[in-house]
């Protein structure tokens, strides 16, 4: 069945891969014997936020491509100029959390998180080149999707963030794994402030491997189609690395200056101790002239107090956990988060009513009792009945 991909390249849509308007699956010719799988998140009006149907389509489509010997490499991108993916569709999650029908309440939310986390874990297991093109906002659940790729590209407009601290959730979709492995204090700063990280900082931190101008997309696709693919996956990975490295070099000098380097000394001062009380005090009291740092401080001052505790625990635990252990543990946190009031209140204030004045359950980080945190981290399932027991 012939089609034309969203980039204008001619390709073939597989009969086995089901597209809908929200997620497009195109197969582009790549020589006589191979094809490239191009997946496009196609909800630009919502900055390509994903819902449960999209999660299931992504999971099924990329799995099939990974098993198809004709597909040499898989590419993920977002439609439009604003975002790869700004996260999950939290309006639908809010509706699920506040549903009047007790039989329906939380069903969608539970299904969404269970499906999303499992999908992202399986994406980490993809053995073929999996390339994510990060342009514009890459946040929350979108970052979880993006970071699962084994080849990650950031454009000059990249804004990468885990912003959940402001909506009473927690940095999720394996954030515990990645934040805990960043050089101190980058993981703490990202988690506690939800700051947007630009391309240069993301590359220095290893969150992306390549920095390319967005206008090189067509060149990238054409060269991918012209590459000499084979059945050896290691050789194909090397081809992708070589191509992206060449394009990265051609884009040198076009990327923004580092935000973190400009305030490195100030961050060292703020995070001189990893004690939560000391960090909170310094984040609130520190005086800076740097606009980016000041924005992060303002984000922290509006943060959910319980989420602040969870982030500290995520970074502490995540450092010694495997990826599967992290995903399993975060599903427990998600199960509890939708049953505790801070998350729904944060979404109400920041997204639904937009009064930007969430009424958190606790007035300060110091006021959060250990019993509350224990509830948020208590599994509702015996170990052998966890939904991911056999993931």
Automatic annotation (TrEMBL):
SUPFAM superfamilies: ClpP/crotonase. The keyword Hydrolase applies. Keywords: Hydrolase. It is an enzyme of class 3 (hydrolase). It catalyses: 3-hydroxy-2-methylpropanoyl-CoA + H2O = 3-hydroxy-2-methylpropanoate + CoA + H(+). Its EC number is 3.1.2.4. Residues 37-376 form the Enoyl-CoA hydratase/isomerase domain. This is 3-hydroxyisobutyryl-CoA hydrolase. It comes from Bacterioplanoides pacificum.
């Amino acid at each position: 069945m012939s089609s034309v991909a969203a980039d204008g390249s001619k390709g073939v849509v597989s009969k086995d891969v089901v597209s809908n308007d929200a997620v497009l699956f195109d197969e582009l010719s790549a020589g006589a014997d191979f094809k490239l799988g191009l997946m496009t998140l196609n909800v630009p009006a919502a900055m390509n936020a994903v819902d449960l149907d999209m999660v299931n389509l992504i999971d099924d489509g990329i799995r099939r491509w990974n098993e198809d010997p004709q597909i040499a490499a898989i590419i993920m991108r977002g439609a439009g100029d604003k975002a790869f993916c700004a996260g999950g569709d939290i309006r639908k999650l809010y509706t699920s959390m506040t549903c009047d029908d007790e039989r329906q309440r939380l069903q969608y939310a539970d299904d969404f998180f269970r499906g999303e986390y499992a999908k992202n874990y399986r994406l980490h297991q993809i053995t073929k080149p999996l390339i994510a093109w990060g342009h514009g906002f890459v946040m929350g659940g979108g970052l979880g999707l993006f970071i699962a790729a084994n080849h990650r590209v950031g454009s000059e407009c990249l804004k990468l963030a885990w912003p959940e601290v402001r909506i009473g959730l927690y940095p999720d979709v394996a954030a515990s794994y990645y934040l805990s492995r960043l050089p101190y204090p980058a993981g703490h700063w990202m988690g506690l402030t939800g700051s947007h990280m630009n391309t240069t900082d993301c590359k220095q931190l290893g969150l992306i491997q390549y920095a390319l101008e967005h206008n090189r997309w067509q060149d990238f696709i054409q060269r991918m189609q012209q590459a000499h693919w084979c059945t050896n996956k290691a050789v194909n990975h090397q081809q992708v690395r070589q191509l992206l490295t060449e394009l990265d070099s051609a884009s040198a000098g076009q990327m923004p200056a580092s935000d973190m380097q400009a305030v490195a000394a100030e961050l060292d001062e703020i995070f001189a101790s990893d004690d939560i009380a000391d960090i909170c005090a310094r984040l609130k009291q520190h005086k800076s002239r740097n606009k980016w740092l000041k924005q992060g401080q303002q984000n922290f001052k509006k943060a959910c107090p319980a989420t602040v505790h969870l982030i500290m625990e995520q970074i502490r635990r995540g450092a010694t956990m495997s990826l599967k252990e992290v995903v399993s543990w975060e599903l427990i946190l998600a199960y509890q988060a939708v049953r505790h009031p801070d998350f729904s209140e944060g979404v109400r204030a920041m997204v639904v009513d937009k009064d930007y004045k969430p009424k958190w359950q606790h007035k300060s980080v110091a006021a959060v009792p250990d019993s509350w945190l224990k509830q948020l981290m208590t599994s509702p399932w015996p170990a052998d009945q966890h939904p991911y027991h056999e993931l």
